[in-house]
Known about the structure:
GO terms for molecular function: ATP binding; ATP hydrolysis activity; DNA binding; nuclease activity; zinc ion binding. It is found in: Cytoplasm. By secondary structure, the chain is an alpha/beta fold. It is 35% helix and 18% strand. The chain contains 30 helices and 23 strands. Strands 5-10-11-3-12-13 form a six-stranded mixed β-sheet, sandwiched between helices. Strands 17-20-21-16-22-23 form a six-stranded mixed β-sheet, sandwiched between helices. Helix 12 (289-297) runs antiparallel to helix 13 (305-320). The protein is globular and about 85 Å long. It starts with a strand and ends with a helix. It binds adenosine-5'-diphosphate (2 copies) and zinc ion (2 copies). The site of one zinc ion has 7 residues, from loops.
Amino acid sequence: MAEFIRIVGARENNLKNVSLTIPKRKITVFTGVSGSGKSSIVFDTIAAEAQRQLNETFTAFARTFLPSYGHPDVDTIENISAAIVVDQKRIAGNSRSTVGTITDIAPLLRLLFSRAGEPYVGYSNAFSFNDPQGMCPRCDGIGRITTLDLDAFLDRSKSLNEGALRHPDFKVGSWYWQMYAGSGYFDNDKPLAEYTDTEWELLLHGTGKVPVEWQGGTINSTYEGIVVRFTRVYINKDAATMSDRNREIFERFTRSETCPECAGARLNAKALSCRINGHNIAEMSALEVTELVEVLRRIDAPQAGPVLESLIDRLGDLVTIGLGYLTLDRPTATLSGGESQRVKMVRHLASSLVDMTYIFDEPSVGLHPRDVDRLKKLLVKLRDKGNTVLVVEHDPDVIEIADHVIDVGPRAGAHGGEIVYSGDVAGLHEADTLTGRFLRHATPMKTEYRTPTGRLTIRDASLHNLKNVTVDIPTGVLTVVTGVAGSGKSTLINEVFLAEHPEAIAIDQSAVAANRRSNLTTYTGILDPIRRLFAKANGVSPSLFSANSAGACPDCQGLGVIYTDLAFMEGVKSTCETCAGRRFKEEVLAYRLRGRSISDVLEMSAAEALEFFTERKIRDVLRAVNDVGLDYLRLGQPLSTLSGGECQRVKLATELHKQGSVYVMDEPTTGLHMSDVSHLLGVIDRLVDQGNTVVVIEHNLDVIKHADWIIDLGPEGGSAGGEVVFTGTPAELLEFPHSHTAAALREHAG
Ligand code: ADP
Ligand code: ADP
Ligand code: ZN
Ligand code: ZN
């Protein structure tokens, strides 16, 4: 069997014609600063080629239903096996997708009930909320129902003639309105508040045939009360198929509530009546996984022995990976990125496929150092089953388990795209690369702390697992919120604190702009001054230099590339032939500013642009962009191509001049190399020194060591967490005996 994946001449994005070999059935970790080209190798080259080769194996007919993958820009790739990407994308799921269904643990639990439940009910389908046999008939297995919100729909102070029906389709004079006003059932001038019980009943729930006066004639029509009609016409339609306008209206006039029939359990009465040791299947699915394992261990049912065993095994994987605080009935749509990735990992661990290539994108995201050890064990388990494991990772602890390391650099963007080291971990520690250097040098613990200027108090917070938490957040300093996954950090900060302090600014990793036309210059507002400079230098109108003007290339509308969207297929991107990627018409390109065309300027990196421009307003923005470590970004690169970490730093750059604000960041080190982290800390220090308050949720020990104040939550995840374990300085935490964070700090202390 071929022992290596061989890649020759890779050129995706910033890759400089690189060649590399990757040992098969081993763990290879890709390191390097953010923007160096790790994803370009792993996702855009290896995963893309594996997927393309897989698609080639389908018939031409089947392929028309699959997304089409172009050849990645690479000379050859040999010995690649089918690849599975386990990334941090949220699990797109409807309300029927839960932790139980996505991990395939739910079917095992159903099997257990069909074998060992009392009274015996039948096949395991009878316990499925996705099967007509098991689902609650009222909510169709969703657990929630949508009803007409009469308070929103009706203005009780008005009569029908005055417009008591607020929905636009029922406005005075419309056909629906006429149905009520022309029915003869009501006094059209009487305010609804004065209706008798009979009139209410007719208005809301009545049915029957009535002659309705309409446009001068009389039509015999079916009368339906408002609730009946609204339910038939609107609620029974799939909201996903509605137009944006209709969905908006729909949401304004409806409310969602727990299903009264199943109380949210999603199953019908028969399924819920079946029990094992007193628990029905909905109750078991609502237990935290760690508790569920205990309940299952106490079951004595020889006829279900093998099922019980594999259930306990699979749940054990969830616990091992630090997700023991989740419940099987948790909708996947509510999981964080890190949780989603680990849930997907559990699904793959159970699979019996071998000789696959598994690709992980920073699996340590969201994991406390305590749980990183368990993650490492799972990666090793996957390798030992005979798979090739590729991991993009920055955490020194995870890098340690690599059989092979590929360090990409030396820096980011145009200054990266090369392999600067490949070999074992010991060699990486000696290597003269940024990664090697940072592995050798430990960040010192901060010993001088800023003095708070005041405090913001969170009082009696009890959302999710929080146990009546009251805690002060000091202002004017850097506070780091720590604790194992599931301890309640996001609940406390992102939900409770942000809800109480809407003036606080959350800087997250979500996309900055969905639009292909937005880039650094449009987002930061420097495109306008740049256009005016060009206009002034050439005595023409500034509008010639914008992407949607008469000056732009008519074929690509100033994008330089053409996107072809095809039904069923991923869009294809190609350089615009008309302008050869230069975005503007020839005559516009002839206008120069200090010898450069507008197209040349958009091709500049932020660092080059900082040298080119002398104007203060433009320079302030560019300096901020450079300060957050995005010096390599080209001004014209669409923001839609940025990674989450890059998006977060673009947002930071636009905030750097503010004062007196409160900033909240959730794991800002995601996607960042150790050297990027020290850069980020510099930026945060600047924000705080300018008089801002910064609150950061982090597991990264370098960030924790850099805090002025620490709030540690725990002691564990889920119901065993939700308390403040410690507040104080990093030095005080180091001495504190009862905290997982303290233990991790001691282990990694300088
Ligand atoms: P890493 O994974 O090491 O953070 P990437 O491989 O994502 O780095 O990016 C390498 C470089 O290529 C960066 O300068 C990035 O901005 C650029 N890049 C990534 N994707 C695209 C794209 N779709 N179009 C243009 N440039 C891109
Ligand atoms: P952390 O940020 O420390 O990882 P979280 O605040 O995300 O912890 O979670 C704390 C607890 O609240 C966990 O038990 C988690 O399962 C629960 N939880 C979080 N979000 C939701 C939600 N949307 N629905 C139900 N439970 C939730
Ligand atoms: Zn129901
Ligand atoms: Zn063009």
